[in-house]
Amino acid sequence: MADATKYIPIVSDPKSFFSIPKTRKTLTFAYAFTFAFVAFTVFLAFCPSPNTSSPFFTNIFSSTASSTSSTTAYKSQLSSIFSFLFNTTTSSSSSSSSSDSTHATTTSRSTNTTFQSPPTTQKPFKATPFQNHTQTTPSISKIPTNQTEKPRDRVVNKEPSSASNHTQLSGTSYEDKALNKSNHSSNGVASLPKVSGGSPRENLSSPVKGEGVVHGNYTASLVKKQKDGNKETDSGMEDEKIEALVKCDFFDGEWIKDDSYPLYEPGSCNLIDEQFSCIQNGRPDKDYQKYKWKPKGCSLPRLDGHRMLEMLRGKRLIFVGDSLNRNMWESLICILRNSVEDKSKVYEANGRVRFKGEASYSFIFKDYNFSAELFVSPFLVQEWQVQVKNGTKKETLRLDLVGKSSVQYKNADIIIFNTGHWWTHDKTSKGKDYYQEGSHVYNELNVLEAFRRAITTWSRWIDANIDSSKSMIFFRGYSASHFSGGQWNSGGQCDSEIVPIKNEKYLKEYPPKMRVLEKVLKYMKTKVTYLNVTKMTDFRKDGHPSIYRKQNLSAEERKSPLSFQDCSHWCLPGVPDAWNEILYAELLLRQYQNKHLKNRT
């Protein structure tokens, strides 16, 4: 029976024999068609043609084109395939709409970071300082963290807001700022004072009344903090520049050409004595005014007259010494006066307009309650007279007494001393019957020893009378002369010099008197800043008035004008301006040190 059943298809009649293959062919064809269709669909899904522009392919593969991660693309493709196979067109359409909506929301955030409300189904970004508000008001949306390009349009409305200004200043979003400021809480933002009345910014930028006010206050706070930060940065940079001056030797350097100099225009200061007004006296070349002093180890700050006047507000600045200190005094007055708007408020206390022949002068800067004064004392010790046997008087120099004017300036805030040139004159250099101590007049005394005794007398007076905690003391060193072919009173000349010395090997030897000075300064109790200008002035053989020291020559001078030259003093504007720039740098250093000392205490 089993065998009979097994071989039924073979022994059946012809009609039955043909019906079985027909049924199997139909099923095979159906399965083959289904398999081929599925395979074709899968092939298109994973290897789509670049020309799939029809709506059918667009709907199926739209997520592939807009996705940025491979995992998301894979899930989107499978979803589209199953939606097609199982005829869930409604679900596919809904998914596509959701995808388009999400894409649109992302684009909207990229183009507007000022006021963008999040979708109702999206949780607020936790890092923003606005998200803890109890009221259900819209808040600023977070810029997507994977955004690498700056949006082209950061604000929809055309009115520049404080928010957009801050974005341009900082280059980061408010939320990024909030992440960096751990001490800024939402409570602090919420407690900002409310401003009554509407503003255009509220109507244009804020969808809820009052939200723009809070945001504006927050932005203003950020801008203020940034400005304060910029001030701190500028202050830090300035401190670094001043710190570079601390260990710098201001007096070891060179003169370099700088067309931004002089610090004031020739002829702009009518307070300069005729003796120093070289351009007005007919000097044709002007390049000597175009040099600035450049130390090797740093750069001196350009003298800012406004700032220096502020540092000198309410103070007395005193120059004590010879006519070279008068040169420096007039230079400083012209520099500072050039920075004052109302020149009528800068005047000499006694109305003087020429500054030779008197024992002292004082210029008042009324708006600053500041005075720049000069006390004439060429030796720093007293010039004296003694009676000789026949009843006549003889001039002497009291090496044991400081100048009579010392009582008038001992309480000044800043004092600049100098002496030097008068010690080269015949009477002092020979030292016969000239130097006196007590009632004793030396028959002969070496000039270097006389100078040492005079400077020692001066130093003892400083230590006994000057309070270094209240006064700054400077001593300006010897200013080089450049007489060629003689001295100041024997036909020495320098009128042919129009460029500075470039090579140091042509400089003179350091004056022995200044070595004596340095030794005395070393053992003083009071701090004295030594302005060692000898080397820097020795380069400048071109800076003297020479024959351009006056306009109206005497009859004798007209006969031989080249025999009467000034190769000791300096034209103004000129070399003394650089001395005052060094003084300015010293004042900046002292101000910097006092500030940091106060911070430590």
From TrEMBL:
Q: Where is the composition biased (Polar residues)?
A: 118-148, 159-173, 180-189
Keyword check for Calcium: no
Keywords in alphabetical order: Membrane, Signal-anchor, Transmembrane, Transmembrane helix
Subcellular location per the Swiss-Prot or TrEMBL entry: Membrane
Q: State the similarity comment.
A: Belongs to the PC-esterase family. TBL subfamily.
Which residues belong to any copy of the Trichome birefringence-like C-terminal domain?
A: 300-585
Compositional bias (Low complexity) at which positions? Answer: 91-117
> What topology does it adopt in the membrane?
Single-pass membrane protein
GO CC, sorted alphabetically, is: Golgi apparatus; membrane
Q: Give a GO molecular function annotation for the protein.
A: O-acetyltransferase activity
Taxonomic lineage from the root: Eukaryota, Viridiplantae, Streptophyta, Embryophyta, Tracheophyta
- Domain (Trichome birefringence-like N-terminal): residue spans on this chain: 247-299
This one is known as Protein trichome birefringence
Pfam families (alphabetical): PC-Esterase (PF13839), PMR5N (PF14416)
